Amino acid sequence: MIIAQVIVDVPAKQVNQTFDYLVPDKFHDILEIGMRVIVPFGPRKVMGFVINITNDSKFKRLRKIIDVLDLTPVLTDEMIELGKWVAEHTLSYYITAYQAMLPQVLKAAYKKEIVRLTEDELIPELEVLFAGRDVINFDEITKANIPYRLVQKAIQAGDIYINYIVQSKATKKYITMVRPILEDYQLMEALEDLPKNAKKQRVIIEHFINQSEPLSQKELIKRYSTSYSTIKQLKQKGLIETYQQEIYRHPYDDKAFTKTYPLPLTEQQKKAIQPIKQIIHKEEHKVVLLHGVTGSGKTEIYLQAIQDVLNNGKEAIVLVPEISLTPQMVKRFKGRFGESVAVFHSALSAGEKYDEWRKIYRGEVKVVVGARSAVFAPFENIGIIIIDEEHEVTYKQEDQPRYHARDVAIERGLYHQCPVILGSATPTLESYARALKGVYQLAVLDKRTNNQAMPEVKIVDMRQELHAGNRTMFSRLLKLKIEEALKRKQQIILLLNRRGFSTFVMCRDCGQVNECPHCDIALTYHKSSHRLKCHYCSYEEPMPIVCPACQSEYIRYFGTGTERVEEALTKLIPEARIIRMDVDTTRRKGAHERLLERFRNYEADILLGTQMIAKGLDFENVTLVGVLTADSMLHLPDFRSSEKTFQLLTQVSGRAGRHELPGEVIIQTYTPEHYSIQLASQYDYVQFFNIEMRLRRQFQYPPYVFISLITVSHPDHLTAINITEEIVQYLSKHLAPQTSVLGPTPSPIMRIKDRYRYQCMIKYKKERHLKEIINMAIRPFEDQMNQDELQIIIDMQPYQFM
Ligand code: ADP
Ligand code: ZN
Ligand code: ZN
């Protein structure tokens, strides 16, 4: 008796365990751990992952596996363990964790087809089935009762391949290739035999006499203006053959990257890379925090460390924030490692992502560069994991499973006994504190590689501007500096720190602000469509002509959206050519890159945008960076708001003067005395760290304590409060006396999509059984969560408190 233990695709608490299934005879030989199967579950058929195969079960009367979806496993042994770890650490379901680790295409039971890869004779069963076709439906195999074992063999031999069909789009692409079958002299003889008027056939044969490299049928037809029938005739004569070659959809054209070579390292870089190389050499697991100012050559260190890893025959994972996964970044890795690099990008289509995943899985690439989820790249012999800009919040997934890529990286680093490198100019307080304690190793780069000074930062007090009668959003100094830069034909980046800021509509007579009817948040005015939109749900309405409350006509919009800044800037400096970059102008695929490319080609003087322009960009001609509203983020209800402000200002300042030309930065603010603004302008990370740590200790925030957050939401206000209260009660009773359990507190945005939201915050130093206790606290509400509108979200390590 063979039994498979399966995690089924039913995300529910009661189902969050393995189920035993009997493996029918026909699957005995082929089923392996890590494959996906279809199993009966209640009255349904569901997908599941086989995570163990055994010989007995404590259950009687087992049901049978209906179908096996893969003929090669999609989860490695490490991944199976990692998925359990992720689920347990984030209090998510196992199935959700496994699905987060795989590309979209493998998350569901897609239709399959079988593609013939060879012209050679297949086994008779398959040959009969294909009957001259190149692609057949997988169902035909099942119908014809051909043993899967035979199919699996043919796959292993590379004769056929299984293709998952994603929606209407083929997951894989094939092209027909043509190659000669005979030797050169034989082809020459054949050429003699060909009738003189068979010109088209002759040119093709002539082509192959000079070179036997295969060429795509399409290219051949194009190049020699021939046709399919010509190729068919030559095939029939036995001179050439055609075959299907799988091609990967190329999001990047590898040939477009110029090869780069390791730079001789500066003294600083040598000192920083040395301990990393040692860890690689000793094959140990250690975390290194690489604290290096912008432009100090961190990326070059990554590249050279990876080279060592590749020389050892191992693989590398590089995580970068989605936002800085720019063509520039990709170019640096492709330029050094060429085709060994796979790129994971949210802009890739499901099919393209699957292509990249498969290259990793089959060991065709050795380096993966990607955003958060690339931490799950299915390499089996990892030699280094690098997290660039480790302070970025995008490394935390804000959806189940709520994992942090840093934690997963460290877990994998342990498994593979390899270093994990965290790089940043502004490390999180957590990481820096760990480095000071010796939990992580610290490496420092405090100078730019070109020894250029960091650009000078001037702080402008906007209150004084107002007193001086300047009501615009541009200080006199910034205006002057922009004009000077324009005269010198240099470029400018203007950042509108928009988080927590928007263009809202207010009646000047009665003060009424237009709010979303479903969420406790002001609607945002969008000039291009002249409509009001809610940024938390999809609600929108036309811009009212009169105040809905008092009918006054004096209704207008306030605040500073990028559109308004652009308008004001055009008025102020009409000759400036502006590129605006925000969510509205970058919605379409590739728009982000196109805008940056235009700026790089000097098709504009000013790049105006939100946070998305702050990072990773490197423009030679930019000498001025202006921050319009530095403090808009400082007053968010988030204990990390000072840290985030410091990080953003430091990052954006690093954009200026990266090359020959010296840079300058102007920060406009209403709170010039704030330490995060002052210290960012002095590039003093260590001092910032010291002050911020003192405050964190005083108010008991991480890294002095850990925080977990439970958010309860329900359409009924009172229900939301009461359930939160019950959870708080339970936790207070069962957690340590030193632990504080706060709540019920309304979430900063108390209502979203007509649901009331309440929080319970747990601050603790040591709680050995926290997860179990939280689970117990939630248990009484499980039924209600399944049947009712109740939602309880647990975030073991929150980065968002809204
Ligand atoms: P960071 O990643 O720390 O911001 P980069 O790796 O982008 O820094 O380096 C900044 C610039 O310095 C890049 O243009 C890079 O090519 C260059 N650079 C890095 N290391 C060296 C070196 N050893 N010698 C010369 N130039 C270097
Ligand atoms: Zn809304
Ligand atoms: Zn009014």
Automatic annotation (TrEMBL):
One Gene Ontology MF term: 3'-5' DNA helicase activity
Residue span, Helicase C-terminal domain: 542-710
Chain residues that bind Zn(2+) 2: C516, C519, C534, C537
Chain sites annotated for binding Zn(2+) 1: C507, C510, C547, C550
Keywords for the protein's UniProt record, in alphabetical order: ATP-binding, DNA replication, DNA-binding, Helicase, Hydrolase, Isomerase, Metal-binding, Nucleotide-binding, Primosome, Zinc
Catalytic activity: ATP + H2O = ADP + phosphate + H(+); Couples ATP hydrolysis with the unwinding of duplex DNA by translocating in the 3'-5' direction
Superkingdom of origin organism: Bacteria
Record's cofactor remark: Binds 2 zinc ions per subunit.
UniProt EC number: 5.6.2.4
Cofactor: Zn(2+)
Keyword Isomerase part of the UniProt annotation: yes
GO biological process, one term: double-strand break repair
Helicase ATP-binding domain ranges (all copies): 279-445
GO cellular component terms, A-Z: primosome complex
Entry keyword Nucleotide-binding: yes
Subunit text: Component of the replication restart primosome.
Function, in words: Initiates the restart of stalled replication forks, which reloads the replicative helicase on sites other than the origin of replication. Recognizes and binds to abandoned replication forks and remodels them to uncover a helicase loading site. Promotes assembly of the primosome at these replication forks.
Family indicated by similarity: Belongs to the helicase family. PriA subfamily.
Protein name: Replication restart protein PriA
Organism: Cerasibacillus quisquiliarum
